[in-house]
Amino acid sequence: MMILPSFLSCCFTSGSAFVTKRFSHGRRHGAAAASSSSSSSTGSYQLKNKRPLFVDSDVGFDDILAISPLLNTKSNINANSTAYATSIPFISTVGGIQSCPDRSARFLQKIFPAAKVFPGRAQKPLDDKETPTWLLTFRNGLNGIMDSFDIGVVNSPRKDSSAEIAEFLKDYEDLGVDLMCLGPLTNIASWINDEHVFPLVQSKINHVWIMGGNIPGADEAEFNFAQDPRAVATVLGNEAMRNKIRLLPAQTCQKCAPSSTEWKELMEKGKNGTGIISKVLCATASWDDLKYDPMCAFSYAMPQSISYSKMHIEVNEETGLLSLSTAVEEDGYSTVKIIVDVTIDTEEGFLNWLSVGIDHYKPIIKLTS
Questions:
Q1: At what angle do helices 61-72 and 276-283 cross, to 10 degrees?
Q2: Annotated domain spans of the chain
Q3: Which of 36, 184, 322, 334 would be 227's cystine partner, CB 3.0–4.6 Å?
Q4: Which residue has the higher pLDDT, 84 or 179?
Q5: Whether the Cβ atoms of residue 178 and residue 300 lie closer than 8 Å to each other
Q6: Which residue would you say has higher pLDDT here, 84 or 275?
Q7: Which parts of the chain fold into alpha helices (H)?
Q8: How far apart are alpha carbons 134 and 227 in whole angstroms?
Q9: pLDDT value at position 159?
Q10: pLDDT digits (tens, 9 = 90+) for 201-231
Q11: Is the pLDDT of residue 2 over 50?
């Protein structure tokens, strides 16, 4: 039974404006109420997450715009700032926006050389007739950027990153690392199903931040969850993992939006650099294309600027659609924290965080046109 708790009815509308974006076949477009508040280009950040962060990415435009500010939001924001860059020692790639995790991993290794990047799993590829037009457009744009790094296409077999993740996790103290999932949950599900790897995942990972899913009322699942619904069921259905999860659904991203003027000004500033951020923004500066993964990264970096509710979740293993019900503290079942609101326009809001990340971005490699 699909139950929409009363508090969510106030946060989300079930009309088409908030349920047609980032779903499996429709183009990534959406409408959200714009804020008229302005944001400052500087801010004082007390980041709460001091653990190293491990990222699992399908390497879309928004993934790059999420990871770069996490690495670069630091130093001298103002006299009272205690901001610092997030440590991201390990990145795995997964099929999703990009269909070839091996090529994606070689690309990320080049633009984020301080991290160890390993290719993970891909889903069964779609032919061009089955692939949505917006996704083909995204892939073509990203392929152009990868080509500028001389990252060629290699027909490599599907890979399992279980050995690499086990090696990465074993030296950390218990609950000593966080995980952020910016693509389909295919890799994470494979680790849970591996009897040698899952004990490490369970004991070493503190929090799991996931960009994906929908609030009930959607006709089709959000893109990440639609790519591998059984993986979603494996991850969200695991009793030991649920209490670790902070889930940012597509509708939260859609309803929390800056004004078009604010966004345009920020994007124009970002285009003026010489690194990967400017390359991404010159390919697409659309809020509709870029908001998802950066908002998940912001939620991780600035948890004091988000609101969430504890929910029970059921997953349709065929579609990836979610059913939610309000959690009762005394019921004894583990829950997932659903992020229902993200601060946009204050000093400690999303727009300012992203602006500071772009300001302090120092490209490793200057790109040619």
A1: 150
A2: 6-359
A3: 184
A4: 179
A5: yes
A6: 275
A7: 6-11, 61-72, 101-111, 133-148, 162-169, 186-192, 198-204, 223-227, 229-236, 239-242, 250-255, 260-271, 276-283, 287-290, 292-301, 350-359
A8: 15
A9: 64
A10: 999 999 999 999 998 877 889 999 999 999 9
A11: no
**Which of the pair, 42 or 222, is modelled with greater confidence?**
222
**Which contacts of 226-229 are long-range, i.e. CB under 8 A and separated by 24 or more positions?**
226/23, 226/24, 226/319, 226/320, 227/24, 227/95, 227/96, 227/123, 227/183, 227/184, 227/186, 227/320, 228/123, 228/184, 228/185, 228/186, 228/189, 228/320, 229/315, 229/316, 229/317, 229/318, 229/319, 229/320
Backbone angles phi, psi at 307, to 5 degrees: -125, 145
Question: 61-72 vs 292-301: helix axis angle to the nearest 10?
Answer: 30
Count of all residues that appear for the chain in the document: 369
Q: Helix or strand or coil: residue 61?
A: helix
| Rounded CA separation 210/192 (Å) | 15
CATH topology of domain 6-359: Inosine-uridine Nucleoside N-ribohydrolase; Chain A (3.90.245)
What integer pLDDT is reported at residue 299 of this predicted model? 95
pLDDT in tens, 226-252: 999 999 999 999 999 999 999 999 999
pTM of the full structure = 0.85
Quote the tokens at residue 324. Answer: 């939610």
Q: Is-contact 25 130, C-beta < 8 A?
A: no
Structure tokens at 249: 């659904």
Task: Name the pairing type of β-strands 336-342 and 322-326.
Answer: unpaired
Residue 328's pLDDT is: 63
